[in-house]
């Protein structure tokens, strides 16, 4: 693919609804997960190629696959069978990392009507430090009304 074709493809993918349409055609409805008190999205660095053990972070929302998630069957997964994961003995402040999906308890998440995403031990997905700044790490902590524990899953 030439440079000009690549630029055209990037521009096409940036159009509203195109990424979701492409994902839907592939048989999977992908989602963007936005931190409730910002315009920051759940993100994995490495431009869509997550490395096992890499911490999850938030970053300014964009249309690229590093912010596209499959939220289904109690898992939040990215391309390549990589799941959001915490250790089974997670405590407040435990970082959320990427690991191979294997159905472990620390890979089970549920969306709540109040915007919480709840994982093992009833801990909520949260942004470290309580401030949704660019590249802030994602952790789990005791659920509260903190705005950094509110997430908008857009399918």
Outline the structure in words.
With 155 residues, the chain is mainly beta. It has one domain: Trefoil (Acidic Fibroblast Growth Factor, subunit A) (Trefoil), CATH 2.80.10.50. The chain is 12% helix and 32% strand. It is built from 2 helices and 13 strands. The protein has a 6-stranded antiparallel β-sheet with strand order 8-6-5-4-1-13. Strands 7-12-11 form a 3-stranded antiparallel β-sheet, with no helix packed on it. The relative contact order is 0.19. The N terminus is likely disordered.
Essential attributes:
single chain; 155 residues; Trefoil (Acidic Fibroblast Growth Factor, subunit A); 6-stranded antiparallel sheet; 32% strand; disordered N terminus
Number of helices: 2
Rounded mean pLDDT is 82
**In order across it, which strands form the biggest sheet?**
8-6-5-4-1-13
Roughly how many Å apart are the termini? 29 Å
Topology:
Elements (H helix, E strand, L loop, with lengths): L2 H11 L4 H8 L4 E6 L4 E4 L13 E4 L8 E4 L2 E4 L3 E4 L8 E2 L1 E4 L9 E2 L5 E2 L4 E5 L10 E5 L8 E4 L1
Antiparallel strand pairs: 1-4, 1-13, 2-3, 4-5, 5-6, 6-8, 7-12, 9-10, 11-12
Write a brief caption for the model.
The chain is mainly beta and 155 residues long.
